[in-house]
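Sequence design from tokenized structure. All designs in this work follow the same two-part layout: the structure record, then the generated sequence. An example of the structure record is given first.
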């Protein structure tokens, strides 16, 4: 249904335009819930969510590949906070992004589709932005759900794709700057406003969004209604998932993938001993830790028990966005490193007993080495097999991905 202009335009209203060469079967849109003002505001919200998600994501990625130097060990809740925010803004950006796309998708059907080189480039950039952003948030969601149907390494692709998303966001903002400035200056149209113009997305002669706004003739739901419903939905989604890391909100976390206190010893498990294929190996009675360095030696379970006296209250903060604080007991990694002839300046490589799968090994150096604990106990009990029995790493401000469970070997360099 085309929006037919009223017989008499209000005094001073701009001249109307109609689809000239547009084929009659070409789709056109009349919903007046959309406008430059609404789109600009949604775009600003998406931009803020993506920006925060990008920066916190970079902080997390730095833990995996610290190209600027060692990762600090303080504050111990640093990774918990940044990864919690990363996953929460990622969640919130899914409905925000869908809403933003809803507000502009009629633009896809502008006639003519490719009026000039600049518009064509702009549309290619939009395509890259939409495709990469959707792929990024949806694969991120699947990762949080621990469902990885894709054949690629999630973290590497997620990292590089983030640069594509942010790059195309910046390009898009540059293309749309006049429209954004116009949209943010203009108030969203209220009921009772007089229609003076065909909606921008249905105006074949307007290839810039920066023009007068349409008013709703008889909207079924007001723009304010759309935005309020969206904000409420996003708020509920956030409250229902943030409980996986903001522990007081855990009871409200009915959509949270993991409950912070549910799991053996009051801590969730991401990858079980069975999934890692270490059942029968990690709990073998003759297990011992192999330490390799200037002096090589082995530590048996009895050796560890005798010296496992250091206590630490540290968060377990997983890349999937859940976290919880737990009581750990064990021995200082640095003490073991010194016994092997190393020092605070050593680089230490920890390997688990698992022979396949990701996160089997990790590296510790710098402030993290001084602060790291080789844990034997969790919340007052011997580590359960799923939490890394007989020995695992735990350290402050460290991603759980790098807190290797079921340790078999420590190499000091
Ligand atoms: N050897 C080994 N250690 C590992 C992993 C693994 O797959 N193998 N997974 C890591 C990840 S991704 C997480 S979230 C934590 C989970 O620790 P938890 O199960 O004790 O909570 O273990 C980490 N340590
Ligand atoms: Mo994880």
């Amino acid at each position: 249904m085309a929006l037919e202009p009223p017989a008499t335009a209000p005094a001073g209203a701009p001249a109307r335009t109609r689809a000239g060469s547009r084929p009659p079967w070409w789709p056109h849109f009349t919903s007046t819930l959309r406008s430059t003002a609404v789109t600009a505001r949604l775009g600003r919200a998406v931009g803020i969510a993506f920006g925060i998600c990008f920066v916190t994501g970079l902080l997390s990625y730095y833990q995996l590949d610290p190209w600027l130097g060692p990762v600090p060990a303080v504050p111990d809740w640093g990774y918990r906070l940044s990864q919690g925010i990363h996953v929460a803004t990622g969640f919130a950006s899914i409905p925000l992004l869908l809403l933003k796309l809803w507000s502009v998708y009629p633009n896809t059907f502008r006639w003519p589709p490719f009026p000039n080189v600049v518009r064509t480039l702009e549309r290619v950039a939009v395509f890259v932005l939409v495709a990469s952003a959707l792929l990024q948030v949806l694969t991120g969601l699947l990762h949080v759900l621990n469902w990885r149907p894709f054949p690629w390494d999630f973290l590497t692709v997620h990292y590089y794709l983030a640069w594509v998303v942010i790059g195309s966001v910046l390009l898009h903002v540059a293309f749309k700057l006049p429209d954004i400035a116009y949209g943010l200056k203009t108030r969203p149209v209220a009921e009772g406003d007089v229609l003076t113009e065909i909606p921008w997305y249905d105006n074949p002669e307007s290839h810039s969004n920066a023009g007068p706004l349409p008013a709703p003739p008889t909207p079924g739901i007001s723009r304010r209604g759309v935005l309020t419903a969206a904000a409420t939905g996003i708020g509920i989604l956030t409250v229902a998932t943030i409980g996986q890391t903001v522990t007081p909100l855990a009871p409200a976390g009915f959509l949270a993938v993991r409950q912070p206190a549910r799991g053996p010893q009051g801590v969730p498990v991401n990858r079980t001993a069975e999934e890692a294929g270490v059942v029968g190996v990690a709990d073998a009675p003759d297990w011992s830790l192999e330490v390799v360095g200037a002096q090589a030696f082995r530590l048996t379970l009895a050796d560890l028990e005798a010296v496992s006296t250091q206590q630490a209250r540290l968060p377990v903060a997983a890349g999937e966005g859940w976290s919880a604080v737990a009581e750990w007991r064990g021995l200082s990694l640095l003490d073991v490193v010194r016994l092997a002839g190393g020092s605070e300046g050593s680089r230490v490589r920890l390997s688990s007993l698992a022979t396949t799968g990701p996160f089997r090994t990790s590296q510790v150096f710098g402030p993290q080495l001084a602060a790291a604990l080789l844990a034997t106990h969790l919340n007052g009990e011997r580590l359960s097999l799923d939490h890394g029995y007989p020995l695992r790493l735990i350290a402050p401000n460290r991603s759980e991905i790098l807190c290797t469970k079921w340790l078999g070997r420590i190499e000091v360099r």
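The longest helix spans residues 154-185. We note this feature because it recurs in several other targets discussed in the main text.
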